[in-house]
Design a protein that fits this description.
Layout lengths: L1 E14 L2 E6 L2 E7 L6 H13 L1 E4 L5 E4 L6 E6 L21 H17 L3 E4 L7 E15 L2
Parallel strand pairs: 3-6, 6-7
Antiparallel strand pairs: 1-2, 1-3, 1-8, 4-5
Helix pairs in contact: 1-2
């Protein structure tokens, strides 16, 4: 499982001009899934996201997790995180889970985040989405669990 996590002050995802998910302060999570991903990888990633201490405390240090700042998560499926452009000019996506499998993993991952008492909004799996966000500082993390 691969994730790109961006700390934001607000974000929204739209499909055909209609907002389908929006958050204020929190994380935008672009999530990609591989065929070998299972419950352990999903749980590890959900725990990691819930526990990351990357919000400023009273002293301005990155020390607070999402729940302590009243934040939320906007999760967007992103198979292109498994794009391999090492050869040629067009990336191969052979490392990504097939759509039906990836959708089940995505749904389970979203459920796991909610089980950790996080407020979660989503895009729509497989849809062409417009994602808009306002960064909360330049905080972007790449997380991976094999």
């Amino acid at each position: 499982m691969r994730v790109v996590l961006q700390r934001v002050s607000r974000a929204a995802v739209r499909i055909d001009g209609q907002t389908v998910g929006a958050i204020g302060r929190g994380f935008v999570v672009l999530a990609g899934f591989a065929p070998a991903d299972g419950e352990d990888a999903l749980a590890w990633m959900a725990d990691k996201i819930a526990g990351l201490r990357i919000f400023a405390d009273a002293e301005g240090k990155m020390n607070l997790p999402l729940a302590e700042v009243g934040g939320a998560v906007l999760v967007i499926s992103q198979f292109t995180l498994y794009g391999d452009a090492a050869k040629g000019r067009r990336p191969s996506f052979m490392g990504a889970a097939p759509p039906l499998e990836a959708e089940a993993l995505y749904d389970r991952f979203v459920a796991m985040l909610r089980e950790r008492s996080l407020a979660v909004e989503t895009g729509r799996f497989g849809a062409m989405m417009d994602v808009e966000l306002v960064n909360d500082g330049p905080v972007t993390l790449i997380l991976e669990k094999a």
